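Two quick folds needed for the group meeting slides. Do the first one here.
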Amino acid sequence: MILESFQVGEGQRPTVLLHGFLGTGRNLRSLATAWSEVDKSRRFLLLDMTGHGTSPRLPPGATLATVAGDVLETARAAGLQGPLELVGHSLGGRVSLAASLRSPADVARVTLLDITPSPIPTQLSESGKVLEILRAAPPGAPDRRTMRTELTGRGLSGPLADWLLMNLEPAPDGTVRWRFDRESLAEFHGRVNGEDLWAALTRPGAKVRCIRGGRAHYVSDADLARMESLGCPVATLPDAGHFVHVDSPEALLRWLTAER
């Protein structure tokens, strides 16, 4: 399945940036632009993963491997050649690991942005809490302001509500409606959070690195120790939360551009 995508940079080193749950490729545009200015050798592909943004919806029973296959197919259709470097935030990181297991020859390296190969416990899933509020919201509204009020009234912060509103699209009757299928995303989220992806770090030739937010809880100290024991370097940005690319963009860029 070919996904919606765009490119940044004119180099030949193929690098795919994958957003988190409920996001789109646009979420990582600033990172791609800044990274491209520092490293002219790279060509970045940013896409809306399956079920997100303007890409096709998730098929029934979709897994991380399903989405990973769509990512790889899209990268090749976009003209990226040779082994790919996959950089994924949250869900995007887990899809990157799944891609390295599905097609090891196509993946040169995986970079995880605040996510673990371990199954994600329900109580630690911030995206799960956001999803429940999103599912409780109406399917549409007269305008974005009305939907924003709806979301903040249910407990979401203003910035988080504004981020979600990027997924609204105009309807023929002049209202706005959600672009994605909230129920299929909820079903997918519940299933893939339980996947164990440690095999992506133990397979022969695996090359993985990780950076975590010091104020986040997705990558535990136990995960850190296990990853490092398997040859996966892990760094911590002490002032960042889960959205490391938003909270500490300059520190993240320095870490990304330091070859490891």
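Then this one, please, same format:
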Amino acid sequence: MKTVYHKSESRGYANHGWLKSHHTFSFANYHNPDRMHFGVLRVLNDDYVEGGMVFGRHPHRDMEIISIPLEGELRHGDNMGNSGVIKEGDIQVMSAGTGIMHSEENANEKPVKFLQIWIIPNKTDVTPRYDQINIEENAVQNDFQQIMSPNPDDAGVWIHQDAWFNLARFDKGFSKEYAMHKSGNGVYVFVIKGKAKIANQILDERDGLGIWDTESFVLEAEENSEILLMEVPMKLPS
């Protein structure tokens, strides 16, 4: 098993006043040649947006974009006619494909915190699409809850890539083995809350650990924890 450990404090950081963002991988003005991606996981941003502030309308193309709100609410609008609010307990996905334009707004007074994740797709020039679902209503304790996969008929949202996302809400002391869905995939483990251990590596809140060249690993909660597991192909599309 091979691993790469990213301490929370090692992430890139941008403070725009109304927007504060921690970048696990190179993004915008943060460039680290050693932190360009983990397989096809290209962006993992931990964002904080002040109340009443707006990401103006901007374009995306040929990227799978996933947003997971952790606190507050974020209003979405795009040129496909989609509009609405995503909030804690939801997951949103956009397949940018041939091109989309969208905006995001914190329409409330309270700040919003959310994870913005980009996955390089296995298909380009697809028809753009949008989806959002509530994942809280199917939440499970002390198990892996699948919230994304490559299969439209499977649990969670789906994307154009052989990638699976799971949430783990583990009580202190609970452990469970995670098995890879596909050979050649790796998992990037990100601790949203709490503290966890994989092998001999302790992961504190907002730490990340990439794992590959293994069929499985054991995740153990050192405290009551909420952990996001992002399984992705390690080989970039040709």
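Slide caption for protein two: The longest strand covers residues 41-49.
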